Amino acid sequence: MHSHEMFGRYRQRVEELANRSVLSDDWFGELQALILQLDLESSELEDFSSRFLYEELGEQFEQEAYLTEENHRRRVLLAATKLLELQRSVS
């Protein structure tokens, strides 16, 4: 799978979680599982492509978080940004 396909798929999945009208009690666990799954799939990419994918997703989520007025959406998007940063630093 190419990085642009992963970008679209994982962006959509995080957006779906962020757009839920009511967050589950374990929304953060769901988000962590998504990021770990992304890490597994992106390990097949070249290092540059993988790094670029994480940076682009993080920047997109951060920008959207600052533009939204919904607190739960902002919380999910900012958490995704931080998890992406943390995952890249350990990979």
Q: What report would you give on this structure?
A:
It is a single chain. By secondary structure, this protein is mainly alpha-helical. It has one domain. The protein contains four helices and no strands. It has helices at residues 3-18, 27-42, 47-67, 71-90. Helix 1 packs parallel to helix 3 and helix 1 (3-18) runs antiparallel to helix 4. The longest helix is centred in the middle third of the chain and has 21 residues, at 47-67. It is globular and about 35 Å long. The mean pLDDT is 92.
Keywords for this entry:
91 residues, globular, single chain, mainly alpha, 0% strand
List the helices and strands and how they pair.
Layout: H1 3-18, H2 27-42, H3 47-67, H4 71-90
Helix pairs in contact: 1-2, 1-3, 1-4, 2-4, 3-4
- Which runs of at least 5 residues are low in confidence (pLDDT < 50)? none
Average pLDDT over all residues: 92
Largest sheet: none
DSSP strand tally = 0
Helix/strand/pairing class, anyone? Answer: mainly alpha
Give the DSSP E fraction (strand runs of 2 or more residues): under 5%
Portion of residues within helices: over 70%
Work out the count of structural domains. Answer: 1
Summed up, the helix count is 4
* Distance between the first and last residues' Cα: 19 Å
Rg over alpha carbons: 12 Å
Q: What form results from the Cα inertia axes?
A: globular
Q: What letter string, H or E per element, gives the SSE order?
A: HHHH
